[in-house]
Amino acid sequence: MAEIKPTATASVKATSVQPKKSSNAISWIAPVFCIVAGYAIWRFMMGNPSGFNEPDPSGGFWPHHKGPKDAFSAIYEGGIIVPLLIGMLLIVIVFSIERYLTIRKALGNGSISDFIRKVQYHLANRNVDAALSECDKQRGSVGNVMKAGLRRYKEMINEGGLNTEQKVVSIQKEVEEATALELPMLQKNLVFLSTITSVGTLVALLGTVLGMIRSFAALGQDGGAGAAGDLAVGISEALYNTALGIGTSALALIMYNVFTTKIDSITYGIDESGFTLTQSFASLYK
């Protein structure tokens, strides 16, 4: 009767990696709060009656003040699209801060490349406990993935029911499962920045077009040389939408590229961690 070799799935323990608990509250509360805050800034700060020569005494949701005294008040006359653009700018700022704090924590303490070299040194000397100690010092996503892999690495050293190839596969699987839990936390909420990068300019263009429509409509109704001055003022007010939208989109694009670059460096470190563990085990524990 042919001998049946043990398989990795039959003997290997389940992963020790625990799912991370996170709240999605900020993902839906922050945008709503930012839009409301954008309206409040537009209505009560930019639209403060004291900033206009001819304030609208009726007030309401959208008072029609005239004669702004300064550029800040002039932005108010850009129309109802302005609070939306201000809200989008606040969204970019809020999620940039949130992503910075998250990614800064994920980078860990010190250089990722130096950390991996230290782990490689300890593994070459068959000192797995020292390598685990380096993970506790490093922390961050790379440290977490490396620690999960090292724990399985240590288990496989004394595992007698599997051959070397099966042990390497087990270590690799543990690293992949730990990676699958780390990466979503790094990429979370970046969709807001990537969306505003393209949508911000379009929303600003919409505000500009609406402003131009109002300006030319007033020109058609009033006529005369005096209406030309009103047209020039209307065009300048409409262009505030363009300026605000382009500035918001530019900031979103810059922050998105900064964060994706940081995430790429972390992902590279995670990939190198998995390669380090599998290659070390395959060469030392044949």
What does this structure look like?
There is one protein chain. This protein has helices at residues 8-11, 25-46, 71-76, 81-107, 112-124, 128-138, 140-157, 164-187, 190-222, 224-284; strands at residues 52-54, 66-68. It has 286 residues and is mainly α. The protein has one domain.
Topology:
Elements: H1 8-11, H2 25-46, E1 52-54, E2 66-68, H3 71-76, H4 81-107, H5 112-124, H6 128-138, H7 140-157, H8 164-187, H9 190-222, H10 224-284
Antiparallel strand pairs: 1-2
Helix pairs in contact: 2-4, 4-9, 4-10, 5-6, 5-10, 6-7, 7-8, 7-10, 8-10, 9-10
Gist?
With 286 residues, the chain is mainly α. The protein has 10 helices and 2 strands.
Largest sheet: 2 strands, antiparallel
Shape: rod-shaped
What is the count of β-strands?
2
Low-confidence blocks of residues: 1-12
Order of helices and strands: HHEEHHHHHHHH
CA distance, first residue to last residue: 27 Å
Please supply descriptive tags for the structure shown above:
mainly alpha; two-stranded antiparallel sheet; 2% strand; disordered N terminus; 286 residues; 2 strands; 10 helices; single chain
